[in-house]
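>> received
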Amino acid sequence: MVYIDGFVIAVPTVNKQKFIDHAQLVDVIFKEYGALRIVECWGDDIPDGSVTDFKKAVDAKKDESVVFSWIEWPDKSTRDTAMEKMMKDPRMDPTDQPMPFDGKRMIYGGFLPLVEL
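>> returned
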C-alpha cells in the first residue's frame, strides 16, 4: 500500500527560487531511494483561520509563504529504508545543502491513505 509523507513549512517569500532549486536537488535523491512522486506546492490561497490555519501552524511571518509538500512511496518499508539512507547521504549535508527555510517550524508526518479516487 502506498505511503505518504506530508510537510508544511514557512519559506521566506524572497527565497522562492532558492526553495525551488533546493527541492529540485533534494527531490532527485528521494526518487533515487524509491519515492514514486514528490509534489511541492507554493501557497496561493491560504486564508486566516479563527482558531488555526496553515500560517499559524508553522508560525509564518508576514514575509513568508506557506509550502505544502508530499512524497508518495510504494510502501512504509521503502520510506523507512530511504529515510535511513537520506540521513547518511553526503548530498543531504546541511552544511553543503542548507535549507532555505527554518526547519524547526516544519510540520511533517507519515500517513496511510484511506480513500483514493
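>> The CA atoms of residues 27 and 93 lie 14 Å apart.
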